[in-house]
Structures are given as structure tokens and as C-alpha cells.
Amino acid sequence: MEGSSKNHYEVPLMRYFGWILFLFLSGCTENLTQKNHIVIGESKPIQSTFTPKEVRLKLSYEKPYLLFFFSKTCGACKEAIPYLNELAQSFQGEVEIIGILGGSARSDNDIAFLNQHDVRFKVISDPQSTEYFSKAVGGVYGVPLFAFFSSEGKEKKRFLGLVPKSLLEEILKTIRPNEF
Predict the structure, then answer these.
(1) Averaged over 51-66, what is the pLDDT?
(2) pLDDT of residue 24
(3) Which one of 54, 80, 113, 123 is at 20 to 30 Å from 69 when CA atoms are compared?
(4) Could you read off the pLDDT of 82-112 as tens digits, one per residue?
(5) Buried b vs exposed e over 74-107: b needs ≥16 C-beta within 10 Å?
């Protein structure tokens, strides 16, 4: 009798763990659900879909984009803001520049910081969105981080640390749509 009771529990337990493994593995290959990200000072959110299997971060824009990961306490990040403003103006309509402000606690403080430093490109600062974008690019291990993406959502180039405006401009020219 003892041997039969052991088999009685063994089969359902194996099925249970089999279902858990199946659900886990199927969740790893799906798209993360479409997310909306609040842009500071704008009424229209940015929509995104990350597909881990294809390593693709697709945004609602039908154009290439630059994600600029930065923080309020980073001196190099503050130095990059003026020339990112210039690049956002120069490439308006062709390439989006989106700041991802990490370490945010309150949007009021974020707005004050953006105003103080005259940030004119789009900025996302809510903690859930910053974590989402950080995971989508494989982690952010320092700032400033510049990640360039094609309009299809494929990462093309990445730089960690302060880089010259001329280098960023060169990369933006290579990822923007060709003009005919």
C-alpha cells in the first residue's frame, strides 16, 4: 500500500510542475504587453512594445529614436542636455530624442529640474517606465547612456558616458530615414 500512495501523489505533482514550467517558458518568448509611458508636459503618451525574442523595442513613432538615460545628480548628463536640445531641434520630424530620467521620486521635482536645465526634448521619469526601458535595453549600468534605435525598434549603437555632440549627430544622420 505504501508504494501505491507514493505514485498517487507523484503524477499530479509532476503535472503541476510541468504546467508551471510551460507557463514560465511561454511567458519568456511573448511580447511584453503594450505599455503607455507618460511624457512630462505632454498629453499624449508614448506607446511601446518590447519583443525579447527579437530584441526589438518598438515605439509608437514611425521613426528612429535615441534613448538618453540620465539622472539629476549626474554632471556629465547635465552637460549633454544643451546639445541634445540642439539635436532634437535639428532632427525634428526625422528622429525622436527621448530622455529616460532615472532615480525619480516626484514629478514636481522632475519638472523643476527640467525647467532649471531648459530640457526641450521628451522626458519620461515615472519609475515603472524607467525600469521597463532599462530592462528593454539590457540594463543601464551607468549614465549618461545613449542608445540609438531604428524605426523598426532594433538597437543600432550605444555609448556610455559623455560623448561629443558631433559623434551623436553623425549617428543620428545614419539612422534617420533617407530623403529622396
Answers:
(1) 90
(2) 47
(3) 54
(4) 999 999 999 999 999 999 999 987 778 999 9
(5) beebbebbebbbebbeebeeebbbbbbbbebeee
- 111: exposed, middle or buried (Cβ count in 10 Å: 0-12, 13-18, 19+): middle
- Spell out the residues 6+ positions from residue 137 whose beta carbon is closer than 8 angstroms to its own: 57, 67, 69, 145, 147, 155, 158
Q: Which pLDDT belongs to residue 62?
A: 86
